[in-house]
Amino acid sequence: MRPVASPGPDTLDQASLERFQTELIEHGFEPVEGDLGLWRGPIADELREHTNAETMVIEFRDGWPFQHPRLIVEGLDADHVGANGEVCLWASGASSAQWTTWQGYRARIAEWAARTRDGFQLEDFALDGHLDFQRRRPGLATVELARLALDERDARLGHIVASWDKAGTRLTIEPGRNGPVTGRWYLIATPPNRRPKNLEEIRSLLDGRQRSNLDKRMAKVRDRGLPQVLLVAWDREFGREALVLLAEQESGEAVVCAIEVAPTDQETLMLRAGPDAELLATQSITLFGAGAIGSHAALILAECGIGTIGIVDHERLRPGNVVRHVAGELFVASPKVDALSFEIGQHAPWTKTQKQRRSTWNATLLAGAATNRDLLIDATGLTSFTMLLAHVAAKAEVPMVSAALYREGAVGRVRRQARETDTPLWLRKPPGYPVIPPSEDEAPRFEVGCSAPVNNASPLAVHSIAAALAESAIDLLTGRFLFEDERIVVFRPLTEPPFDRIGTVS
Question: If residue 175 lies in a helix (H) or strand (E), which one and from where to where?
């Protein structure tokens, strides 16, 4: 197999590249057909036990010295080797810079060869399995593996269907018998020693019934031109691994391509929810005010794992709101509670939302909204409502966190009322709780059809104070209490101390 020639790489350090290539010459390498991007030389001694090849190719790519050169070797039969012979020495974006010298490059080859012989480490298997397959197709194959019930079938195979999105980049796989593309899933009883690279290797891993079924699937493709989707799964020490294949007819033959698999299982999504997700899953909050600050704070909390969020707001989303709101143009004229609930569902499907489209100034209704809640969050930006809610929260003995922006987003404040040592909001006075000074020269801004003045705070300030609000909420819900009961964040310094410096005023 001969690698495809490429032009010499674009580099930010030509001198170091030339030094490395000089070392290659000293060790018997030379450019392939004069191409300075491809160098062929004698096979590394450590690789001889894994291949009969006598040579190997080093391919330099744009981005030297920050992107490592590829290593391509024929005949390697091991994990972490692509179908084109590329050896996965480093993950994409690695920063070790070990490859900038021949000594470092050889050391990595020796390490790879040792792991091939003795067993790869757990983190090595995070590399994408579809890249090992002989043929690949762009796109993502999304699937909720739990819905396939792979462990509930003694036969270790079952029906699946799949459909492409309009762009042809996402293949959604579901259990079923009828759909645009039909197929089967197969659970391999004995995990393979390495990831399969072609259909024949997959076939060799199946039992008799699975193999017979696979042959029928491929006959449908070859003889009738009916595409088939195949999902092959097996278990390793780190968990379940899957490979998604799409078989299509090409020139009267069945051609199989691998598609990058992307699980949608909640367990997979929760890997990115942060370390507090398990604890937060049992927590419930009520948010008052689903506007700019409230929508972003609620979405952050949901993404971090909050179990239930009650959303209270009576307004509809206006075109001007979308500049700072989590919801976009598609939700204009929709209730803000609906827009926020939808976005939370898209980002954090584990969070249950409860919508109340109303303005809650009635103390009895407020007390009802506080019932069986672990936290109340005020993001209305209305001082009078904040004080009302503070009294209701104190009476109901429910913790509360509030946030607002001032002076066109120059200053933000997050308040907590939860512990016995937290001063009730209505009793906070200077000097312990400095008053944010009003402005005498900031002209009010109005929008036609909007009954309230527009706070011209930057979306940057909105995102920042929303994150601070969510941070304080999680700090409270986890019982860490690392923050004081009031934080003032200065984004742009004012003339009056202590607001004349950027940073946090506690």
Answer: strand 170-175
Q: Is 58 exposed, middle or buried (0-12, 13-18, 19+ CB in 10 A)?
A: buried
Residue partners of 171: CB distance under 8 A and separation at least 6: 139, 140, 141, 142, 162, 163, 164, 181, 229, 244, 246, 259
Q: Which of 403, 405, 404, 399 is nearest to 422 (CA)?
A: 399
The tokens for 3 are: 């690698």
Instruction: Tell me which amino acid residue 318 is.
Output: R
Nearest to 155 by CA among 186, 191, 199, 178: 186
Contact 99/108 with Cβ under 8 angstroms?
Answer: yes
Rounded CA separation 478/280 (Å): 8
Question: Own/partner pairs for 212-218, CB < 8 Å, 24+ apart?
Answer: 213/157, 213/184, 213/186, 214/184, 214/186, 217/183, 217/184, 217/247, 218/247, 218/254
For 344: left if phi > 0, alpha if psi spans -120 to 50, otherwise beta; the answer is: alpha
**Integer Cα distance of 380 and 8 in angstroms:** 59
Question: What's the pTM?
Answer: 0.84
Q: Are the beta carbons of 142 and 174 closer than 8 angstroms? A: no
- Sign of the CA dihedral with 167 first, then 148, 236, and 47 last: negative
The 10 Å Cβ neighbour count of residue 418 is: 20
Q: What is the pLDDT of residues 146-160, one digit of tens each?
A: 999 998 877 799 999
Backbone angles phi, psi at 387, to 5 degrees: -65, -40
Q: How far apart are CA 147 and CA 265, in angstroms?
A: 9
The per-residue pLDDT for range 301-341, each reduced to its tens digit, is 999 999 999 999 999 999 999 999 999 999 999 999 999 99
Phi/psi class of residue 187: alpha, beta or left (left: φ > 0; alpha: ψ in -120 to 50)? beta
Closest CA to 157 of 223, 212, 225: 212
Helix (H) or strand (E) holding 59: strand 55-59
Q: Buried b vs exposed e over 112-127: b needs ≥16 C-beta within 10 Å?
A: bbeebeeebeeeebeb
